[in-house]
């Protein structure tokens, strides 16, 4: 009825609608290199085990080399009738080399084949992502180095809380991206296991050697159970979860960039090439890249939910549902890769407007905690000190001035413990320098943290 790989069983061809509905070739063909790589490893093993002849193997290698050229040069004809990347390549192989091509699928199923292809593809994607995260971390470190003592208002509840240095703030993102890399590295260990040999679900009657195939394809080990091997997509879900968290971090950074760039704060400026204008308001320069990254985070979260839902309640072993794993997975990787690439380029272009940061710091009583700490060091219990400073802040508020502007005599009316040395702690520089421990914002500590961060890259 047709020349599909499985049509022998059928009495009528599938309709065009069903063909389109069930085909995956237009999105899974991007795994062609992995598919050929996996097929060659399988064929070599078959020949080594005496399951196919060395002549067959030579023909398969020759045919696959040709197919690689055809695909690379855009000559390959991808055919919807052949469903997916696997059947498209196998069909072309058979057209090129005859019966040897038909022997390639011995002891194998598309079920273990596709699982192998995805794992190979994802392993490469993880390596790319790790490299890009590292690039972004390097860019953050370089910017942090130039701002290890640039004061920035640290916020809680989006209100001025305490002074931090801009470098210290950037190092917070370094840590987040470091954990992201750890997560991807951990996920990679579970990606890097070979499903091939599971065949459709139960294994195969041929005397295969899975360890050899695993070694040739660079897998750390093999999937132990054939049913699990063809039906597990945990590894893809883990990847999407790690990607979702990485995008969370990107999104938080994006939100800050947008806020910082708002003329209301004016803490930074982004290079024009990362912004766009408005078609109606001539004065606008919009931070489109961070806004889009923030938006794309939602799309990556959605893919994670899609994959979790895809796997929920699937009975063992393979079900065609699994074909739906690829688009969310690919789009997750693509979105993350593009986003990281653009951020690694954009971060070095951030122009820091330290005057605006300093001006904002003069407005929110950022050193109020320092004053309370000062009184504690003079012997006042912290709760009483808190109360004293709160009253001083209220006075400042009614007058619209800063704590330091009250002057020594007036400060003493709140507590006789205040001395002339109080102004050391009421300054921004004094406040920063006083947080002088590992993990603190003192410029000396930030510089030390940057050195340690370089060593961890
Ligand atoms: N295109 C399929 C997928 O992505 C390949 C496996 C098909 N196996 C099957 N029994 N129909 O999952």
Largest sheet: 2 strands, antiparallel
Structural class: mainly alpha
Shape: elongated
Q: In CATH, what is the class of the largest domain? A: Mainly Alpha
Q: pLDDT average, as an integer?
A: 96
**Strand-residue proportion:** under 5%
Straight-line N-to-C gap: 59 Å
Care to count the β-strands? 6
Number of domains: 3
Report the C-alpha radius of gyration, rounded.
31 Å
- CATH superfamily of the largest domain, by name, is Fumarase/aspartase (Central domain)
- Reading side by side through the largest sheet, how are the strands ordered? 1-2
**Element-by-element helix/strand order:** HHHHHHHEEHEHEHHEHHEHHHHHHH
Low-confidence stretches: none
Name every ligand kind in the structure: arginine
| Proper CATH architecture of the largest domain | Up-down Bundle
Q: How many helices?
A: 20
User: According to CATH, what is the topology of the largest domain?
Assistant: Fumarase C, Chain A, domain 2
How helix-rich are the residues, as a percent range?
55-70%
Domain Fumarate lyase N-terminal: 8-302
Pathway: Amino-acid biosynthesis; L-arginine biosynthesis; L-arginine from L-ornithine and carbamoyl phosphate: step 3/3
Domain Argininosuccinate lyase C-terminal: 365-432
InterPro entries: Arg_succ_lyase_C, Argininosuccinate_lyase, Fumarase/histidase_N, Fumarate_lyase_CS, Fumarate_lyase_fam, Fumarate_lyase_N, L-Aspartase-like
């Amino acid at each position: 009825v047709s020349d599909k790989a499985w049509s022998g069983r059928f009495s009528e061809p599938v309709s065009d609608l069903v063909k389109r509905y069930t085909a995956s070739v237009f999105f899974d063909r991007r795994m062609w290199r992995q598919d050929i790589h996996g097929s060659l490893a399988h064929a070599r093993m078959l020949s080594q085990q005496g399951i196919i002849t060395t002549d067959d193997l030579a023909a398969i290698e020759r045919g696959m080399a040709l197919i690689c050229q055809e695909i690379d040069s855009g000559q390959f004809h991808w055919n919807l009738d052949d469903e997916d990347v696997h059947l498209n390549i196998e069909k072309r192989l058979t057209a090129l080399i005859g019966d040897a091509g038909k022997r390639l699928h011995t002891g194998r199923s598309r079920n273990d084949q596709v699982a192998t292809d995805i794992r190979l593809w994802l392993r490469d994607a993880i390596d790319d992502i790790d490299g890009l995260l590292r690039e972004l971390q390097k860019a953050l470190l370089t910017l942090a180095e130039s701002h290890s003592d640039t004061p920035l208002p640290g916020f809680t509840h989006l209100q001025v809380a305490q002074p931090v240095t801009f470098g210290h703030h950037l190092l917070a993102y370094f840590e987040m991206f470091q954990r992201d890399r750890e997560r991807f590295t951990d996920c990679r260990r579970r990606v890097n296991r070979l499903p091939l040999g599971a065949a459709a679900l139960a294994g195969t009657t041929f005397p295969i050697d899975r360890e050899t195939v695993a070694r040739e394809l660079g897998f750390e080990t093999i999937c132990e159970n054939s049913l699990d091997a063809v039906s597990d997509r945990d590894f893809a879900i883990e990847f999407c979860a790690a990607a979702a968290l990485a995008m969370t971090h990107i999104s938080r950074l994006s939100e800050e960039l947008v806020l910082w760039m708002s003329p209301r704060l004016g803490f930074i400026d982004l290079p024009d090439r990362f912004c766009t204008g408005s078609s109606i308001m001539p004065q606008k320069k919009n931070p489109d890249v961070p806004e889009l990254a923030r938006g794309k985070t939602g799309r990556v979260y959605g893919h994670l939910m899609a994959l979790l839902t895809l796997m929920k309640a699937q009975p063992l072993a393979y079900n065609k549902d699994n074909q739906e794993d690829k688009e969310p997975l690919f789009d997750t990787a693509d979105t993350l890769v593009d986003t990281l690439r653009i951020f690694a380029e954009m971060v070095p272009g951030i122009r820091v407007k330290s005057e605006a940061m300093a001006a904002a710091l003069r407005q929110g009583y950022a050193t109020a905690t320092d004053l309370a700490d000062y009184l504690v060091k003079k012997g006042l219990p912290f709760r009483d000190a808190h109360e004293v400073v709160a009253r001083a802040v209220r006075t400042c508020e009614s007058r619209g001035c800063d704590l330091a502007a009250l002057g020594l005599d007036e400060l003493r009316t709140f507590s006789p413990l205040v001395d002339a040395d109080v102004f050391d702690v009421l300054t921004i520089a004094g406040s920063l320098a006083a947080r002088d421990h590992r993990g603190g914002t003192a410029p000396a500590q930030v510089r030390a943290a940057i050195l340690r961060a370089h060593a961890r890259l």
